Amino acid sequence: MSRAMALVGAAAVTAVATSLLTVPASAHPGHPRPGVRLIGEQRVPNGLVFQGTTVGGLSGIDRDPRTGGYVLISDDRSDRQPARFYTARFDVTAHGLGPVTFTGTSPFRRPDGATYPPLSTGDGTTVDPEDIRVDPWTGDYTWSQEGERRPGVLIDPSIRTARRDGTFARELPLPANLRMTADRGPRQNLVLEGLTYAAAGTLVVSTVEGPLLQDGPEATPEHGALSRIVVQTREGRQLAQYAYPQEPVFAKPVPATGFATTGVTAILAVDPLDPSRFLVLERSFVTGVGNKVRVYLVETAGASNVANRDLADATGVRPVRKRLVADLADLGLSTLDNIEGMTWGPTLRGGERTLLLVSDDNFAATQVTQLVALGVRLETRMRNGLDVASRLGG
After folding, report:
1. Residue 363 CB-density burial (10 A; 0-12 exposed, 13-18 middle, 19+ buried)
2. What is the dihedral of CA 338, 342, 348, 352, to 10 degrees?
3. Is 59 helix (H, G, I), strand (E, B) or coil?
4. Backbone region of residue 329 per phi and psi (left: phi > 0; alpha: psi in -120 to 50; beta: other values)
5. Quick one: which of 158, 156, 157, 191 has its CA closest to 172?
6. Which residues pair with 161 in a beta bridge?
7. pTM, rounded to two decimals
8. Which of 232, 303, 226 shows the shortest CA–CA distance to 263?
9. How far apart are CA 72 and CA 337, in angstroms?
10. What gap in Å lies between CA 243 and CA 230, rounded to an integer?
C-alpha cells in the first residue's frame, strides 16, 4: 500500500552487500516503552539492481528457520519486473544489525508456469503482493496479495503458496466477504496486507488493512475504524473473523486537502504454538506530517466472531484486546518511513527476542528501504484488558 506518494527517480546502483547505514542503539536518546529497545538499522540503496531486478517495494519479511536467512516480498505488480521475492542474509546481535546481503530472487508463477503480468495486460491475473511467510511444515512460501478494485476491474485478493523456486503450489479459498463485488468487500489497496502462521502451522491468520465497504468508513483524525483479523485452517476452512479496532489517524494533513491514511500492514504470531496472541503493526501516513508506526500486542481470546455480520453497526461486538508495545517515534530512528513488514529474528542471550521490521520505499527516490531491529520482552499475558483505548467515536 501507499504507492500513491512517490515517483521513481534514483539511478540504479549495482551491488549485492549493502551497509550504507548502521546505527547503534546507544546513539539514540528516545524514550521507548519498557521492554523495547532499538538494536540498530540498515538501509538498502535506492534503486539497487540485483540479478536483473530492481530491489524495492519490500512489504513483507520472514525468517527462514531452514537457512537462518530471510525471505522478503516486493510489491512490484510486474510493472518493472515480474512479481517476485528475494532471499537475504544479515546478522542480528545484542549490539547491532549487520549489513544486508541479497542471496537470490525468483518470480512468483501462475499455475500454468507463467509469471504474473502487469495490470495493463487486462487478463485479470495481475497480483499486488504484500506479505510472505515460510510455511513451518513444508518450507514453502505463503504470500498474500490485494487484488484490484477500480472502475470496470474487480480482481479478488488471494493467499497463495509457492515452492521455494517460485512455482505455484496451491491457493487457499477465501471467505466470501473478502471478495470484490460492486458494493461490498475490500476497499482498493486496503486488503490482505498481513499474514502469519499460528498454532504450530495449523492456522493461517491474515489481516485486512482497512475496513470492508460494509464495515463503515476508514479511520480519520476524528475517529478510528474496525478492520478484520481472519483465522483459517491451513487448508482454508474459516474458523473466525475478529474485529480489530484501528486508532484514529494521528494528525490532520497539511494542507487540509492532503492525503491521510492508516491501516494494519502486518501480523505476527507471538509464539508459534499460541493460536490467540499476535503482534499487529499499524502504519499511518499524513501529507505534510509524515509517518506514524506502532506495534500492538493483540489477544483474540474473548473477542466476538464477526464472520457472519457487517461492522458498520458494531453494537454488541467485542473487538480484540490490544496493548501498545512500541511507538517507533520513541526509538530515535534516523528516519521513520513506510514500514510494512515484520518478523521475529533470533532470540538473544537472556531471552530477549529480536523483532525485525522492513519499510516499503514505493520505488521512490524520496523514500528509503529501511531494516530495523528491535529487542523485545513481552509480558506473559495482558493484565487488565486494553492499555490503549481505541477511540471509535468522535
Report:
1. buried
2. 90
3. strand
4. alpha
5. 158
6. 142, 170
7. 0.90
8. 226
9. 17
10. 9
Q: CB pairs under 8 A, 24+ apart, for 381-388?
A: 381/299, 382/297, 382/299, 382/321, 382/323, 385/321, 386/321, 386/322, 386/323, 387/323, 387/324, 388/247, 388/296, 388/322, 388/323, 388/324
Q: Residues of 172-188 as b/e, b for ≥16 C-beta within 10 angstroms?
A: bebeebbebeeeebbbe
| Cα pseudo-dihedral 336, 340, 345, 347, rounded to 10 | 70
Q: CA nearest 385: which of 329, 323, 294?
A: 323
Q: Which three cell numbers stand for residue 138?
A: 513444508
pLDDT tens sequence across 45-66: 999 999 999 999 999 999 999 9
pLDDT of residue 33: 74
Q: Which residue in the block uniquely carries the three cell numbers 548502521?
A: 22
**CA distance linking residue 94 with residue 352, whole number of Å:** 9
Low-confidence ranges of the chain (pLDDT < 50): 1-30, 384-394
Euclidean distance between CA atoms 107 and 91, whole angstroms:
26
Instruction: For residues 186 and 254, give the distance between their C-alpha atoms in angstroms, rounded to a whole number.
Output: 28
Torsion-angle region of 233 (φ positive above 0: left; ψ -120 to 50: alpha; else: beta): beta
Pairing of strands 100-107, 17-18: antiparallel
**pLDDT tens-digit map of 117-170:** 999 888 889 999 999 999 999 999 999 999 999 999 999 999 999 999 999 999
252 in helix, strand or coil? Answer: coil
Phi, psi of 335 (to 5 degrees): -155, 155
